[in-house]
Specification:
The chain has about 280 residues and is of the alpha/beta class. It has helices spanning about 15-25, 40-45, 50, 75-85, 105-110, 110-130, 150-155, 175-185, 200-205, 230-260, 260-275, and strands at about 1-5, 30-35, 60, 95-100, 140-145, 165-170, 190, 215. The strands form 2 sheets. Strands 4-5-6-7-8 form a 5-stranded parallel beta sheet. A 3-stranded parallel beta sheet has the order 1-2-3, with helices on both faces. This is TatD family hydrolase.
Length: about 280
């Protein structure tokens, strides 16, 4: 069983497409963690679970997120954080959250506003994690673009890793020093195929202890519809195969870079954090 720790399931448009996709990935022995971009979208997705339920087909693990790209204003953020606070005890998977300090993003959500939102999110998670079993940690999926150091500093300040919380940086693009700081803190990374396209990215996955590695696709890249010229089953199968191929290719490349035992390490970590067992 391969686990995609970062999949945007709500980008699949319509209940029937989502049901068909879940059948297709189950046939390929793939599980997904369904990241969301706002607390409101998380609530909507979870409400659809009854419509998606099928015998012998696992539902995704629902992840409660507030993406920095979706912070529109202080007032909007306050409203979404109220939704987050109400939902945080309904799942132990949190994401996509984080910071994005690219100039274009800072024009929409200034640095201080992003930091305020992430601080509040982490405070709510730490409070919720205090009452959970050590065998069932809260798991964060963190977006950090030009901001990895700031995210690590906030994790340290709030003592997140001393709580029952595991931070996972998705598609890590920080500096080597920032990655070292994350590892020392106890964090992990989820490996995206694009990390292998640069010498720095390949070095990073070798720098991280194998038991701190997970797989991710960050798919789909945008909304997926069933168009007039395609069958529902074809669209679902294509999306599922793209996902399975991305995960398998990533694991193959990790094995070539890190050795034959890395697949077992990734499987063990997936089981420990997400209770996903290999077949």
């Amino acid at each position: 069983m391969l686990l995609d720790s970062h999949y945007h399931f709500d980008f699949l448009q319509g209940t029937e497409l989502r049901r068909a996709f879940l059948r297709e990935i189950a046939a390929r022995e793939v599980r997904i963690v369904a990241q969301t971009l706002t607390p409101s979208s998380f609530v909507e997705l979870v409400r659809s679970a009854d419509e998606l339920a099928m015998d012998d087909v696992p539902l995704p693990d629902w992840s409660l997120g507030f993406h920095p790209w979706r912070i529109a204003s202080r007032e909007q953020a306050e409203a979404e954080l109220q939704v987050f606070a109400a939902a945080v005890e309904s799942t132990r998977f949190i994401g996509e959250i984080g910071l994005d300090f690219v100039p274009k993003r800072l024009e929409q959500a200034p640095r201080e506003l992003q930091l305020w939102v992430l601080r509040r999110v982490l405070e709510l998670v730490v409070d919720a994690a205090a009452s959970t079993s050590r065998d069932e940690p809260y798991v964060l999926s963190l977006h950090a673009v030009r901001s990895a150091g700031a995210v690590v500093e906030l994790l340290e300040e709030l003592r997140v890793c001393e709580a029952n919380v595991v931070p996972v940086f998705h598609r890590f693009t920080g500096t080597s020093d920032e990655l070292t700081a994350l590892i020392r803190l106890g964090g992990s990374i989820s490996v995206h195929p694009q990390m292998f396209e640069t010498k720095r990215g390949r070095h990073y996955v070798q720098q991280v202890p194998a038991e701190r590695l997970l797989l991710e696709s960050d798919l789909p890249v945008g909304p997926v519809y069933v168009d007039a010229d395609a069958e529902l089953s074809e669209t679902a199968a294509a999306a599922a195969q793209e996902l399975a191929d991305a995960l398998s290719s990533t694991l193959d490349t990790l094995t070539a870079l890190c050795g034959d035992t890395v697949a077992a390490d990734v499987a063990t970590t997936s089981q420990r954090l997400y209770a996903v067992s290999p077949c």
